[in-house]
Design goal:
heterodimer; A: 108 residues; six-stranded mixed β-sheet; five-stranded antiparallel β-sheet; 11 strands; 0% helix; globular; B: mainly beta
Chain lengths: 108, 116
Amino acid sequence: EDQVTQSPEALRLQEGESSSLNCSYTVSGLRGLFWYRQDPGKGPEFLFTLYSAGEEKEKERLKATLTKKESFLHITAPKPEDSATYLCAVQSNYKLTFGKGTLLTVNP
Amino acid sequence: GAVVSQHPSWVICKSGTSVKIECRSLDFQATTMFWYRQFPKQSLMLMATSNEGSKATYEQGVEKDKFLINHASLTLSTLTVTSAHPEDSSFYICSARILAGNQPQHFGDGTRLSIL
């Protein structure tokens, strides 16, 4: 059974303080690792897909990386509007398995 | 692009009522749609996978007679919670995928269902 563990559960940063979120996974045949952002009371918003170890993707202040066992979401110089829950999910076969997410709070 | 609309966003109703939730892909055709349930501070749990024109595939432990899914077109899937009870109260989210394979799923904004 596929498993996804995200850490930390919650992270509080000051504006401009860079950090990283971790997603560890076990999967039988990785077909993709996905990062999403979820705001309170909303559905997840797609950020990145990573397919193979060594791959990196960037979007504004976010950068996602992938190894054979984990993925990192690096946040550089975050702003208060980056505050959200960040979800990691892996796909094997047809379905996604999600982690519980990391609640990121960026204080001004 | 890849916008998914879900309606209604909030439902409050009495125990025993049936509730229908709609999920529409607005700017693309979705061969596959998915229905999830999310409890506070928990991960999204897949309930069922819906393919246009065929019966939905339910995950283990999900009652197919309780949660009726219809995927009548490439842009619309519906979830009906039949004879809802307080334990069915949750946040229900749909998603849609453009093509088969490894394309990302795009999510609607969810429906908060509260059964009194």
